[in-house]
Specification:
Layout lengths: L1 E8 L7 E2 L1 E7 L16 E3 L8 H6 L23 H5 L24 H5 L14 E8 L5 E13 L5 E2 L2 E2 L12 E11 L4 H15 L4 H16 L9 E7 L2 E5 L16 H5 L2 H12 L3 E6 L2 H14 L8 E3 L16 E6 L3 H7 L4 E4 L4 E4 L14 H12 L5 H5 L8 H31 L6 E2 L4 E2 L1 H6 L6 H7 L3 H11 L5 H8 L3 H8 L8 H8 L2 H4 L48 E4 L9 H21 L5 H17 L3 H9 L11 H9 L3 H8 L2 H15 L9 E2 L9 H11 L5 H11 L9 H19 L5 H4 L10 E2 L3 E3 L2 E7 L3 E6 L5 E7 L3 E11 L2 E10 L6 E4 L4 H21 L3 H20 L4 H6 L3 H8 L6 H6 E5 L13 E5 L15 E5 L4 E6 L4 E8 L5 E8 L2 E6 L4 E5 L4 E6 L6 E9 L2 E9 L3 E6 L5 E6 L7 E5 L2 E5 L3 E6 L5 E6 L9 E7 ...
Helix pairs in contact: 10-12, 12-16, 20-21, 21-22, 23-25, 26-27, 27-31, 28-31, 30-31, 30-33
Length: 1273
């Protein structure tokens, strides 16, 4: 039997590899090899780092306190290793004091040897080829550790085999023993799934071991383990590490970004083993959290295929037991009652399938899927949603999965390195294509989940989500929605996590999706989608035709291929080749790690770290400044090397450089540990350096911030108790019906007419059900093509009347967001225009005589027709009267104020009226519904006349707070012109409008369509104060938290920041030389001005003004104009010497300078004071003279001003028609007179910006929170 195995273990806190070596030693009975039973391998000894002596450790002890608990020496050799000492490694027995060993908590040293020989350990009479397989270990917290095992055979003759140079065989019979071959195994453990890299390492190492005798093997294993221990793991991003392991160059790949998984395997393996339809079935099994067992005759395939499926689901994550390899002793694991994914050898297929029920059995070797035979009924695997499945299958069929086909046209390579590089490049490209294909599948499956989320109250309305799914897709969603995996996915969506799913979903949004972000409108089919339904068999199945359309024939679904859910057989036709867009893999760089020299001594390790540091420093110094992504990776690696050398201050400085190169890879936890374990003397040195002191303060403050993230997810449920107003508001918002609080208050008044001011559960249920039923019915409306052609493609039918008699014939009145039309009945449905809302002149509810009766009639008079439209609406007349008047008033408001949101709000109001009448079913229902006639009441109570000048100048209005519960103040606006860049999507080339809202939020609009492009950035949690486009790829945003955030306009993400200010950042300007940005200046409230090198983000100079309260700066002719509370200072940019000063001249000591503008060609500076309604103009050649004053009528205070051509646009808070308004004054710089007074906001004008001097954009305070676009003349 087998006595044990030599076990070497490498552990590192920051490095990628736990090296783990298994070396078998046998003690045999005198049996012929063929009759030997399988042997039980056991652990003999363990290797742990560092691979230098304790004396050496003491020499370099400074700076190593951080890793003290993890430092271990090699385990001493023993003549007769025993299993007891192995057990002590897991804590079952105490090891002798001379031993100093640590192993990962998730590594079971008792079960590990079985996994290294999962098929059993047999002595053979002939040698076998070396082979490799892969392991995955999971601890109780779900953290995974990965192993790569290499098995090889060595001969044993004359009854002897040695370990550690000592013979263990004692012959008990004479005669020569036959030649036997003994299996050995070497296993390397890593915290990361470097499957290909470790496979290549072990393959090279096996070649190197062949010439050596047993006596020398252990020393080489030590060197191998030490070499792996010294290889750092690359940070996320475009840099891979390369080191030499003769005869191969080993590449350690990085993950694409911090949220992405490491991919170091061939992602197309499952696509070679299974048809695309089978791949979808397996993904369904995983998404529905079944009990899954993979089978194969190849141990390596079990782990690789299982890992591929885990990566296919990204960013969703499997959260249950994951054991891709079970040894023959572990088969009882499949009896577990919970969800799991495991793997077994194909030899155990019958045993597993007959002894355990309700298992999904997946045969990798032949591509079949089956159920275990004990199940009474084989439950069907639900189909992946049809459209998502179809897209996935077409894309998979278009992939080039065979490398040999790629080689056909290439010359034969005679260089091993070239062959390796060529294959790796092909595999990287294919992996990227497979990733994009599977990610697109996940996005297509779950894209519409967001439409049923309420972010404020963290509610998901699963019932309504299911109702909106096609009938054939509902079984799939019913199962998936109940899983832990989907629950975690919901948490990420509600937290607005910008992961791979969110990025792809955002980049593939349709224009309709972007517009829906701006207008919270009840879901209806647009005419464009309705037209597509007519030609799409999928949509032709009517779920429930509640509304019977006039004389529409039933549409029969033509016979088509059925979707087969059978587990055992699936028939597929020959798929057509579809040319799909294949994204190119991101360009990656490689860094060659210096050679590691042996023997293993402190001097050698020190020399290696020194060489590594010097190589990185050389790379940093030779890189151009615009290569910030690569610079960040070099800084990160150099910081790690400095840390291992004990140079903690150098490490902190390198990590601090990540702020200006790539903040996403900043190792917060590691830096915090460095600071906590730093010796007092070094901490004192760090505090003397301002940049390190601020870094330490920032990192430690984050630890002190006790912020419990609310990650609960609640499913929407109807209330069971009476509701007061506040509870009612919350319930309505959770339901997704409407978010605006003022509208919900009016709805509350409507539903409580004649009752106490509380709503009972029955009333709420009736209202909710009627709303949802109406919404579902509207989805079933199918207009004939002859009607659709009269409507705009984005129009939706929101309400249909009953069949009524009109003066234009018999039919149903249809309401869209733009018009009323009659859907006539008769031989063929027809279209009759009743009125566009903007053309309505008058609406009356009256009665018409019919025999002896008076029938309620609706009359609509339009500007374009002489004839008045009349409809005998009977008991619907009063409701339609309210509806038409509200839509008419809303349309007029929208046109007058150039704000399309008004018509959307009016539409919501009329649908709420309809639901109130349907729910109450009482004589007071119409009166109750009238409470929701908001725009009609506004029109009657307060004439909403927009001044002519305002109406002519105002072009459009948009709402950056769309989808929020409350409007939010627009603090800063920035317009960036569009530009063409081959690396960007066409949509990114459009001009953009950047809007800074409260608490660090930034919303980005596409300025060509005024649709939301990026819903919400988060720049800290403080108020944002300024924004500027420094160059085409960078937008800088200043904040009250003293940080300047830098947005990459290509990726639309913030991965850099500048932390040099000590107070609120108040302004940023850019100096251009020959039209090219050369230097940026930023100011802070404490009077500090910093000049920045835009390319390197280094500080060129710092200047401290003699006074504080610095609010804004301007640049002209190498002079910096600085506006402080008490004066305006002019300093030179070269020496920062004071040149001029404008003193505060008002008698009111409480007032201070607010803002100013330069007119250098006119030798003028314009400024305003707090609390003042006057503009003051100084002559820059004579500051001692009294400034000219320009009075602004009806102005309470000037808040902001910008220069546009030869005009000054001044934002203010003022009064108009007796009400507080936000006014804009357009002042002629030449005449010093007000040319226009524009009343476009319901609150103070907080921000102004110019769009290429053609348009001016203004943002208002939190009472309104909208942006107006004005024509500049």
């Amino acid at each position: 039997m087998l006595l044990g195995c030599l076990f070497h273990l490498v552990i590192s806190m920051w490095r990628n590899f736990h090296g783990f070596m298994l070396y078998s030693v046998l003690k045999l009975c005198l049996l012929k090899p063929k009759s030997l039973p399988p042997l039980d391998p056991e652990v003999l000894s363990v290797f742990v780092p560092p691979f230098i002596s304790r004396d050496d450790i003491q020499v370099i002890n400074a700076g190593h306190n951080l890793n003290k608990s993890k430092r271990r020496s090699f385990r001493k050799k023993k003549e007769r290793p025993k299993i007891e000492n192995v057990k002590s490694l897991n804590g079952e027995q105490k090891a002798p004091d001379t031993e100093d060993i640590t192993v990962p908590k998730d590594i079971d040293l008792i079960g590990l040897p079985q996994l290294c020989f999962p098929g059993g350990l047999y002595i053979t009479s002939e040698s076998k080829e070396d082979h490799i397989h892969f392991l995955v270990f999971t601890d109780v917290c779900g953290n995974r550790t990965y192993g790569v095992v290499a098995q090889y055979y060595q001969p044993m003759q004359d009854g002897c085999i040695s370990s550690n140079g000592q013979a263990h065989w004692e012959s008990v019979q004479t005669g020569k023993m036959p030649v036997c071959f003994v299996p050995f195994a070497i296993c390397v453990i890593s915290r990361y799934p470097y499957f290909n890299a470790l496979k290549d390492c072990l393959s090279c190492f096996l070649v190197q071991l062949r010439p050596f005798k047993d006596l020398d093997v252990e020393e080489h294993i030590k060197e191998f383990a030490a070499k792996l221990f010294l290889i750092p793991s690359p940070p996320p991003g475009p840099l891979h590490l390369v080191f030499n392991m003769k005869p191969l160059q080993i590449i350690i790949p990085s993950r694409e970004d911090p949220d992405s998984p490491i991919i170091d395997l061939d992602l197309h393996l499952p696509l070679l083993c299974f048809k695309p339809e089978r791949v979808l079935q397996i993904m369904t099994c995983i998404l529905t959290e079944q009990r899954i067992v993979f089978f194969s005759s190849d141990w390596a395939l079990l782990t690789l295929v299982a890992e591929c499926f885990m990566l296919y689901l990204h960013p969703l994550q499997w959260q249950h037991t994951f054991v891709p390899i079970l040894s023959r002793q572990m088969l009882d694991f499949v009896m577990a009652p919970t969800s799991f994914l495991m793997g077994c050898h194909i030899d155990h297929f019958e045993e597993v399938s007959t002894e355990t029920e309700d298992l999904i059995l997946i045969n990798i070797d032949n591509g079949d899927i089956a159920h275990s035979k004990m199940a009474e009924e084989e439950p069907e695997i639900p189909d992946v949603p049809a459209q998502a499945a179809e897209t996935f299958i077409k894309r998979v069929e278009s992939l080039q999965l065979h490398y040999d086909l790629e080689l056909c046209h290439l010359r034969a390579s005679t260089d091993l390195g070239e062959l390796q590089m060529r294959r790796r490049a092909w595999q990287q490209k294919l992996n990227t294509e497979v990733q994009q294909t599977t990610l697109q599948l996940i996005v297509n499956i779950f894209r519409e989940v967001k439409d049923h989320l309420n972010y404020e109250h963290r509610v998901f309305n699963s019932e309504e989500f299911l109702k909106t799914r096609a009938i054939g897709d509902q079984p799939f969603y019913k199962k998936v929605l109940e899983t832990y995996m989907f629950h975690s996915f919901l948490k990420a969506r509600l937290n607005r996590k910008m992961d791979a799913f969110a990025r792809l979903e955002l980049s593939t949004q349709s224009e309709e999706d972007r517009l829906n972000l701006m207008f919270h409108t009840p879901r209806r089919l647009t005419m464009e989608k309705m037209a597509s339904k007519l030609f799409n068999p999928q949509y032709r199945i009517s779920r429930r035709m509640v509304i019977s359309m006039p004389n529409l024939q039933d549409i029969k679904l033509p016979e088509g291929p059925t979707r087969n859910s059978s587990l055992r057989r699936i028939e597929t036709g020959v798929g057509k080749s579809v040319t799909m867009f294949s994204p190119h893999p991101p360009y990656v760089y490689t860094f060659k790690i210096p050679e590691i020299h042996f023997p293993l001594m402190f001097q050698c390790v020190h020399s290696y770290y020194t060489d590594f540091f010097n190589h990185l420093s050389k790379a940093i110094n030779t890189l151009p400044p615009d290569s910030s992504a690569l610079l960040a990776r070099y800084f990160y690696l150099r910081g790690l090397i400095s840390l291992m050398q004990g140079k903690l201050l150098n490490a902190l400085s390198d990590f601090q450089n990540l702020d200006k190169t790539d903040l996403r890879i900043f190792p917060t936890d590691l830096v915090r540990k460095i600071v906590e374990t730093m010796p007092p003397s070094e901490r004192l040195q760090a505090d003397r350096k301002p940049e390190l002191k601020k870094l330490i303060s920032r990192v430690m403050e984050k630890q002190r911030e006790v912020m419990k993230i609310d990650d609960h997810v609640k499913n929407f449920e109807l209330p069971k108790t009476h509701m007061q107003l506040d509870d009612f508001v919350k319930r309505i918002q959770e339901s997704g019906i409407v978010k605006d609080i003022d509208t919900i208050h009016r709805l509350f008044d409507a539903l409580t007419v004649g009752h106490q001011k509380q709503i009972d559960p029955e009333t709420f249920r009736d209202f909710y059900n009627y709303w949802k039923e109406t919404e579902a019915e509207a989805q079933e409306v199918n207009l004939p093509p002859t009607v659709i052609e009269h409507l705009d493609k984005n129009e939706c039918v929101y309400k249909l009347s009953c069949s009524v008699r009109t003066n234009c014939g018999v039919g149903k009145i249809a309401l869209t967001q733009k018009r009323l039309f009659l859907l006539t009945e008769g031989g063929r449905p027809g279209y009759v225009q009743i009125a566009a809302f903007r053309d309505i002149e008058d609406v009356k509810s009256t009665t018409a005589a019919f025999l002896l009766l008076r029938i309620p009639t609706l009359r609509i008079k339009t500007l374009s027709k002489k004839e008045v439209f009349e409809a005998n609406l009977k008991n619907e007349c009063d409701l339609w009267y309210l509806i038409v008047k509200e839509m008419w008033a809303g349309k007029k408001m929208a046109d007058d104020h150039k704000d399309p949101q008004y018509i959307q709000q009016a539409l919501t109001n009329v649908l709420l009226m309809d639901a109130v009448v349907g729910a109450l079913q009482s004589c007071k229902a119409i009166y109750a519904a009238s409470k929701l006639s908001y725009f009609d009441r506004m029109k009657n109570e307060v004439p909403m006349m927009v001044p002519k000048t305002t109406s002519e100048t105002l072009k459009h209005k948009i709402n950056p707070s769309a989808g929020e519960t409350f409007p939010q103040a627009v603090d800063v606006l920035l317009y960036t012109p569009g530009h063409l860049d081959p690396s960007e999507r066409p949509g990114n080339a459009h001009p953009k409008l950047w809007c800074a809202l409260n608490e660090g939020k930034v919303v980005v609009f596409d300025a060509s369509t005024w649709s939301i492009q990026q819903h919400c950035f988060k720049m800290g949690r403080s108020k944002l104060t300024c924004m500027i486009m420094v160059e085409q790829s960078q937008v800088w945003i200043g904040s009250q938290d003293s940080i300047i955030y830098i947005i990459n306009t290509h990726s639309m993400s913030c991965n850099k920041q500048l932390n040099d200010h000590r107070s609120d950042v108040t302004d940023i300007i850019v100096e251009k030389k020959n039209g090219i940005p050369s230097e940026a200046y930023s100011s802070s409230l404490d009077g500090t001005v910093i000049a920045w090198n835009i390319s390197t983000l280094k500080v060129n100079s710092v200047f401290q003004l003699p006074c504080q309260n610095l609010t804004s700066i301007k640049l002209h002719n190498d002079q910096l104009w600085c506006c402080t509370g008490s004066c305006i200072l002019v300093v030179s940019t070269h020496e920062f010497q004071l040149q001029m000063k404008i003193e505060h001249h008002l008698k009111d000591v409480c007032s201070y300078f607010l803002c100013f503008q330069l007119f250098p060609e006119r030798d003028e500076v314009w400024a305003s004071y707090s609390g003042s309604s006057d503009l003051y103009v100084w002559n820059t050649k004579d500051f001692s003279s009294t400034p000219q004053k320009i009075h602004l009528q009806d102005c309470s205070e000037i808040t902001c001003m910008i220069r546009v051509k030869n005009q000054v646009w001044v934002g203010s808070s003022g009064r108009s028609q007796g009400k507080s308004k936000g006014k804009i004054y357009v002042v002629s710089a030449e005449k010093k007179t007000v040319e226009k007074e524009l009343v476009g906001h319901g609150d103070t004008v907080k921000a102004l910006c110019s769009a290429e001097d053609r348009y001016v954009l203004s943002g208002s305070g939190k009472e309104e929170g909208k942006i107006a676009i004005w024509k500049a003349e």
